[in-house]
């Protein structure tokens, strides 16, 4: 080896010996942005905004829905802050959600949600889920029955009214109005004549009503002969006459002889028409009828379609946003179906009714937990097989304490059935909520995976819960699969129906160390274990994808082992963590393949890089509280030093973080003296201006106003340091020393394209 050129720069392969590294790979790399082969430092993140609460550790941005400006710097965006770094925020999966709700869960508090308008007004968040009332409804029944009498069968006892008789001429039809309160079958018409006659003929008639007068003949009773004064006389309808609820009918008696009858109502509500008995009832009687006649003692017996039934009543509470909770305990009672069923209801606690309330324990006024505004009432209807189902009866204001149910079964049976039987709210310690395809929301607690009803994030039926052998650390979603990362082996969940999700245990004993290390891509989920970076695909294939080029020992040596928080950033697994209780202190990047998402790009290939592994120092020299991705732009955010910082890749002149990169060890065939070198580079516009040349040799660290320095190592020991001042400048190395092993380290702020080293200036010119 008399001359060499380092013309491409890659990342670390820590499992390899420095002597055996492929050309261009690094023995050490820190803060190097090696995506194009040139040696460049990571750009410095910019301050996006300060935190309202300096103690916040998670932020979420909501774009203004009026302007629909989703840009990261949009001034009209709303930023919400949370204290716990493991908080999740999910935008509504509800179809056409006019309220634009947002849902959140955190280890620090129970699941909550809020509407867009309330968030914009900085209003308190609601507790997620609608509770069931613990009190069964009270039910009492009045009235009803299978038979009824409609008309005027009783003489009033009120002393103010004195009954009197009226004369009814022969060949006439005398009628009174009735109004059924249900679908019924008319059996007959009865009257009490005050005349005894053995020859009188009479028959019943029923007419419809038109504008307050009898109109069309509906039915005719049988002809009866003879009456006795003061004794009920009856004419029967052989086939009956069906009548319906809340409709006026005129029932009457047609006779061929005159008679007297008692007037029982001072109001003149009767009617009379002159008709010829022998000709039978006329089809249309309105033109010959005289109304405002005395109301006489005449009525009809009817048979109702009601039955003596057993009903169960329940009720649910509903929020102002249409979220329905599970039903109350049922109340089962027996009564006539055509009776009046009085339902007495209970209201939610004052804290759940959408307004500030006074806590009786401390007397303080507090914001409401929920916004329940309505009550829905359901009752059972049985089918032909005797199976009962709850059907909707009515929706009333939640403050209404009583509802009277008079709706018939055939009407209620057309309503919607009760579907919220198991729509309980999520458990208070539910964490990690995330959106899954088909409108399902998924979360976890302990060793349980919970699922919501599709498109109903407020409803979490306990029957949908799946359990794992080991406690859950966190979950990731990729494609049509959920990857469950546990303290033991990972699991895979597939399915499209929350009631029928399939759980598969992946036989890979790689526990997830940190919830924040879980990163979801479109096809895989990544997380860190004590052995390396673990990847689980949506098909269930999994493995340690870093152990082929970084040993387990080196992984634990080079990466933070506590509080790891990571995102997918610039095609890399981008992570920060610490080795102690303090916030995140250093990090690393691992390149993810652009061409093949299920593997790492270690060797050059079309569409890929070979950046491998690289360490990261603290950006801006501040401790990091969280690493996030803005969901509306995919931009990486850092929460640090009381603010939100972002990586602006649209800036063509970024401030570059000083980097350090050391080459592999080059072994000569014999001991040589590397006498000269050149470094070719460009200077970013934001690089600080140069100061006078630093003459320290070796120079310990890069100065604040230096482009860069090159350190030369001979047989593993620092041999000399040279300062980079101009691209291509000839740099001399101490002469008179011959060694076998050479390596070179660059620490700088400039973009280095290549380094040339030779045993003499003449040989350097031949490269």
Description:
This protein is mostly beta strands and 767 residues long. Strands 12, 13, 15, 16, 17, 19, 20 and 21 form an 8-stranded antiparallel sheet that branches. Strands 2, 50, 51, 53, 54 and 56 form a 6-stranded antiparallel sheet that branches. A 4-stranded antiparallel sheet has the order 1-57-52-55. Mean pLDDT is 91; it is low at 594-609.
Helix content: under 10%
Radius of gyration: 44 Å
Mean pLDDT: 91
Contiguous runs where pLDDT drops below 50 for at least 5 residues: 594-609
> What percentage of amino acids are in beta strands?
over 45%
CATH topology of the domain at 147-304: Jelly Rolls
CATH architecture of the domain at 147-304: Sandwich
* Secondary structure tally, helices: 4
User: So what's the overall shape?
Assistant: rod-shaped
The count of strands amounts to 57
Report the biggest beta sheet as strand number plus sense, adding barrel if it closes.
8 strands, antiparallel
| Helix/strand class | mainly beta
CATH class of the domain at 147-304: Mainly Beta
Calculate the terminal CA-CA distance, rounded to whole Å.
12 Å
Brief sketch in words of this structure:
Helices cover 3% and strands 45% of the residues. By secondary structure, the chain is mostly beta strands. A hairpin with a 6-residue loop joins strand 26 and strand 27.
What would the keywords be for this entry?
767 residues, mainly beta, Jelly Rolls, eight-stranded antiparallel β-sheet, 45% strand
């Amino acid at each position: 080896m008399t001359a060499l050129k380092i013309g491409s720069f890659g990342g670390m392969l820590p499992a390899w010996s420095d002597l055996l590294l492929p050309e261009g790979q690094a023995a050490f790399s820190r803060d190097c942005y090696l995506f194009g082969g040139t040696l460049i430092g990571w750009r410095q993140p910019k301050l996006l905004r300060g935190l309202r609460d300096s103690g916040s550790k998670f932020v979420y941005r909501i774009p203004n829905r009026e302007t629909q400006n989703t840009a990261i710097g949009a001034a009209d965006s709303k930023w919400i802050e949370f204290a716990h770094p493991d908080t999740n925020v999910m935008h509504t999966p509800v179809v056409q959600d006019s309220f634009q709700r947002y849902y959140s869960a955190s280890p620090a508090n129970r699941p909550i949600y809020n509407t867009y308008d309330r968030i914009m007004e900085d209003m308190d968040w609601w507790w997620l889920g609608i509770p069931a009332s613990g009190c069964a409804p009270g039910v009492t029944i009045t009235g009803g029955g299978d038979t009824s009498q409609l008309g005027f069968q009783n003489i009033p006892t009120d002393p103010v009214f004195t009954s009197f008789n009226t004369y009814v001429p022969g060949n006439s039809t005398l009628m009174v109005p009735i109004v059924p309160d249900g679908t019924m079958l008319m059996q007959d018409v009865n009257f009490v004549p005050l005349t005894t006659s053995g020859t009188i003929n009479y028959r019943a008639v029923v007419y419809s009503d038109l504008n307050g007068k009898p109109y069309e003949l509906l039915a005719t009773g049988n002809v009866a002969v003879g009456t006795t004064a003061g004794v009920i006389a009856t004419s029967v309808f052989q086939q009956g006459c069906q009548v319906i609820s809340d409709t006026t009918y005129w029932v009457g008696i047609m006779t061929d002889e005159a008679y007297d009858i008692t007037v029982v109502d001072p109001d003149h509500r009767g009617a009379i028409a002159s008709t010829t008995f022998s000709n039978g009832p006329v089809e249309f009687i309105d033109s010959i009828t005289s109304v405002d006649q005395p109301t006489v003692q005449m009525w009809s017996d009817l048979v109702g379609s009601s039955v003596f039934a057993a009903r169960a009543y329940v009720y649910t509470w509903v929020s102002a946003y249409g979220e329905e909770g599970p039903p109350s305990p049922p109340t089962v009672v027996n009564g006539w179906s055509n009776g009046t069923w009085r339902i007495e209801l209970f209201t939610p606690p004052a804290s759940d009714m959408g307004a500030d309330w006074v806590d009786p324990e401390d007397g303080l006024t507090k914001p409401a937990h929920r916004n329940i505004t309505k009550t829905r009432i359901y009752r059972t209807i049985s089918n032909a097989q005797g199976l009962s189902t709850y059907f909707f009866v009515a929706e009333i204001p939640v403050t209404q304490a009583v509802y009277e149910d008079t709706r018939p079964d055939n009407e209620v049976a057309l309503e919607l059935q009760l579907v919220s039987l198991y729509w309980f709210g999520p458990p208070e310690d539910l964490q990690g909520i995330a959106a899954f395809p088909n409108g399902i929301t998924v979360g976890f607690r302990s060793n349980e995976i919970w699922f919501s009803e599709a498109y109903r994030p407020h409803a979490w039926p306990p029957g949908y819960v799946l359990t794992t052998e080991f406690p859950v650390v966190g979950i990731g979603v990729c494609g049509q699969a959920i990857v469950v990362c546990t303290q033991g082996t990972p699991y895979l969940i597939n399915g499209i129906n929350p009631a029928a999700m399939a759980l598969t245990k992946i036989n890979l004993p790689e526990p997830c160390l940190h919830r924040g290390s879980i990163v979801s891509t479109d096809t895989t989920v990544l997380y860190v274990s004590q052995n390396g970076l673990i990847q689980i695909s949506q098909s269930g294939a999994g493995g340690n994808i870093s152990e082929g080029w970084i040993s387990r020992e080196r992984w634990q040596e080079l990466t933070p082992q506590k509080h790891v928080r990571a995102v997918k950033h610039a095609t890399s697994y981008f992570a920060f963590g610490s080795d102690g209780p303090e916030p995140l202190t250093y990090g690393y990047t691992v390149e993810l393949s652009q061409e093949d998402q299920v593997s790492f790009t270690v060797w050059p290939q079309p569409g890929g890089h070979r950046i491998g592994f690289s360490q990261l120092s603290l950006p801006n020299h501040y401790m990091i509280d969280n690493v996030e991705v803005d969901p509306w732009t995919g931009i990486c955010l850092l929460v640090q030093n009381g603010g939100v910082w972002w990586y602006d890749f649209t800036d063509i002149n970024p401030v570059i973080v000083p980097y350090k990169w050391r080459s592999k060890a080059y072994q000569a065939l014999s001991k040589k003296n590397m006498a000269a070198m050149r470094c070719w580079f460009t200077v970013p516009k934001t690089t600080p201006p140069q100061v006078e040349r630093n003459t320290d040799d070796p120079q310990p660290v890069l100065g604040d106003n230096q482009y860069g320095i090159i350190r030369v190592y001979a047989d593993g020991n620092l041999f000399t340091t040279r300062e980079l001042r101009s691209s291509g400048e000839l740099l001399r190395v101490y002469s008179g020393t011959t060694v076998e092993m050479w390596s070179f380290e660059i620490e700088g702020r400039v973009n280095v394209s290549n380094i040339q080293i030779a045993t003499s200036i003449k040989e350097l010119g031949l490269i």
